[in-house]
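Service request form, structural biology core

Requester: graduate student, group of Dr. S.
Request type: structure prediction, single chain
Budget code: on file
Notes: please return the result as structure tokens.

Sequence provided:
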Amino acid sequence: MDKKIAFYIMNKKGFYTLKKFIKKFSSSNIEYIVSSIDKNIKKDYFKEIKQLCKKHKITFFDRNSNFLNKEKNFLGYKFAIGWRWIISSSDNLIVFHDSLLPKYRGFAPLVNSLVSNENRGGVTALFASNEYDRGDIIMQKSMSINYPIKINKVIENIKPLYYDLVEDIYTHILQDKQLPRQKQDESKATYSMWLNSEDYFIDYQNWSAKKIKRFVDATSYPYDNAKAYLNGKIVKFIDVEVVDDVKVENRNRHIGKVIFIQDSPIIVCKKGLIKLIDIRDENDNNLIINFRSRFKDKNDTI
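Core staff response, request fulfilled:
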């Protein structure tokens, strides 16, 4: 088998891994690279990946360009990092996934695992299969997660695990060693759903202050931030803080209301109170919130 590999990569984790791979194994061991613009995040590293390929004279394709002949004729291993689309030739395709499978199969596993308060995370390298994220596991790398933590910090912590897996697997390939493979335990499988613009809204009626804090941190930069409605307009939550609760009479009738203003407004939640440290409008302008304000979710915008 060809000892060269192909990369299908996106975003910070893909860029980091590619740079480290080139430094360790050189660009001569890369057959080609495919990348794509990601409109779902504020910085997608597409330009940086493309420039790195140009610098090292690596064949580069935009996902929307015609590279099917190159893909079809390449017989070596293909590594997919941060990739969200079907790769037509799944032979020798290795997928790198943002969770410790079989938990959090599917989409946005890192965001969903943070919202769910998982205390461990990691990356799984697995063989591609007909059903997403159900292939045999090759290797996994894990790390601890300590809250509160913003997702950009989690990405910083997790990206070295991607390279470690790539290095270990590619070393196996260079040494003609058979890659390990292990069936997933279906009884432990969970699924992580894709997110669209509606899913970034805080569910004030059902979430505690602690969950809102985790949600705000999990959807912060480079993602599009948690949101709510205020006076019929969308407000973005950049940073919040859980503060000591007080007894609120008829609490369920007052969820989302400002109860105190102590340097920053403090909001009544289903359980607990949340202080709004940094809130902005859709144009990233800072907002001044008055005492008679009430934040509402997407189902209660009146």
